[in-house]
Design goal:
single chain, 305 residues, alpha/beta, Helicase, Ruva Protein, domain 3, Rossmann fold, 2 domains, two-stranded antiparallel ribbon, 13 helices, disordered C terminus
Length: 305
C-alpha cells in the first residue's frame, strides 16, 4: 500500500491498493480483510462501502484505517482488530482472551440442534458445555433452542467475561450459567446434576503441531484454547471418563475433533458405552464432529446382555 500520506484517497482507490498490497504479501482473503477493516474504520456495513466508492477519506479516517491495517500486516487476526466475528448468523465480541470461532464449529451446533429435537419443546434440555471460550457455542444453542438450559465451564476467568458479554448481547444470559471450573478437577459441583447433552470443542491440536500453525493462531490466540500440550487427545480421555457422572442414560455426547482424530475418538466413546455413534463432516468434507448416545453401561457389559 503506498505510503503517500498527503494524497486524498477515495474508498475505491484505497480498497484496490490495500487488496493488491495484501495479496503481494501472501495474505489470503485480501478483499474480505480490507472490507472488514475499512468498514470498521468508517463505521459502515461492508455493503455500504460499495455505495460510497467515490467518497474521499478524511485525514482522520485514513489514519484510523492505517492503524488497523498495520496491525493486520503484523498478522494479528482481523477479528481481534475489529473486535467481532460472525458465527451461526450471529455477531460475537472477540479479543485475544478467547479463541476465534471457526466456521467448522457450526457443524457442532447443527448436531446439537438435531439432538435437541429428541425432546418435546416444552421439556427443559440441560446441556453441559466444556470449554466455552467466547461463548459462541452456548449462546448459539440458547438462541436457536429456546428450551435449552446450558451450564458452560471454562478454566479462564478472562474468557468467561467475554462469554457473559456475548450472552447479554444476544439476550440469552438467563439460559446460561457460566462457571470457572477446570474439567480436570473433581467437579463435585457439576456431578450433582446429570445432563441431557454434553458438548465440547476442546483444545485438540497436538503439541508437536504447534510450530506449524499459522502465525495468526500461534502468536495471537490463547494457546490453552488451541492445544492440550500433549497428543491432542487429553481432553477426550477426560470427557469420556466423566460420562457416567455427567450424562443421563439416553443422553447425548457431541464433540468437535481435529484432523484425523474422529475414528480414534469414536472408538474410545464406543468402549465407554456410547451407542448410535456418528461421524459428521464439516463443509470442507473433513470429519469434524463425533456424536452418540450414552447407554448407561460400558460396552463390555452391553455385549453380555
Amino acid at each position: 500500500m503506498p505510503e503517500d500520506k498527503t494524497r486524498v484517497w477515495t474508498v475505491r482507490e484505497l480498497m484496490k491498493s490495500a487488496m493488491e498490497h495484501l495479496q503481494r504479501n501472501g495474505f489470503e482473503n485480501a478483499r474480505l480483510n480490507v472490507e472488514l477493516l475499512l468498514a470498521h474504520a468508517l463505521d459502515l456495513q461492508r455493503i455500504q462501502l460499495y455505495l460510497h466508492f467515490d467518497k474521499p477519506l478524511t485525514p482522520e479516517e485514513l489514519k484510523q484505517f492505517r492503524t488497523l491495517y498495520e496491525r493486520r500486516l503484523k498478522r494479528e487476526p482481523v477479528q481481534y482488530i475489529i473486535g467481532s466475528t460472525s458465527f451461526m448468523g450471529l455477531h460475537f465480541t472477540v479479543d485475544s482472551r478467547v479463541l476465534i470461532p471457526r466456521p467448522e464449529t457450526e457443524t457442532l451446533i447443527e448436531q446439537v440442534m438435531l439432538s435437541c429435537q429428541r425432546y418435546p419443546s416444552d421439556t427443559p434440555i440441560h446441556v453441559l458445555e466444556v470449554g466455552t471460550g467466547s461463548g459462541n457455542i452456548a449462546v448459539s444453542i440458547a438462541k436457536y433452542v429456546k428450551h435449552a438450559h446450558i451450564t458452560s465451564i471454562d478454566i479462564s476467568k478472562e474468557a468467561l467475561i467475554v462469554a457473559e458479554k456475548n450472552a447479554r448481547l444476544h439476550s440469552v444470559d438467563s439460559q446460561i450459567q457460566f462457571s470457572l471450573i477446570d474439567v480436570f478437577d473433581q467437579m463435585e459441583e457439576l456431578f450433582r446434576t446429570q445432563y441431557d447433552i454434553l458438548v465440547s470443542n476442546p483444545p485438540y491440536v497436538p503439541k508437536d503441531e504447534w510450530a506449524q500453525l499459522q502465525t495468526e493462531v500461534r502468536d495471537f490466540e490463547p494457546s490453552v484454547a488451541v492445544t492440550d500440550g500433549k497428543d491432542g487427545f487429553k481432553f477426550y480421555h477426560r470427557l469420556v471418563g466423566i460420562i457416567p457422572d455427567i450424562l443421563k442414560p439416553g443422553g447425548g455426547i457431541i464433540l468437535e475433533v481435529g484432523f484425523n482424530q474422529a475414528e480414534k475418538v469414536a472408538r474410545e466413546l464406543k468402549d465407554a458405552g456410547i451407542d448410535q455413534l456418528q461421524i459428521t463432516n464439516d463443509l470442507q468434507g473433513i470429519p469434524r464432529v463425533v456424536s452418540g448416545i450414552w447407554t448407561g453401561l460400558p460396552s463390555n457389559l452391553i455385549s453380555l446382555n
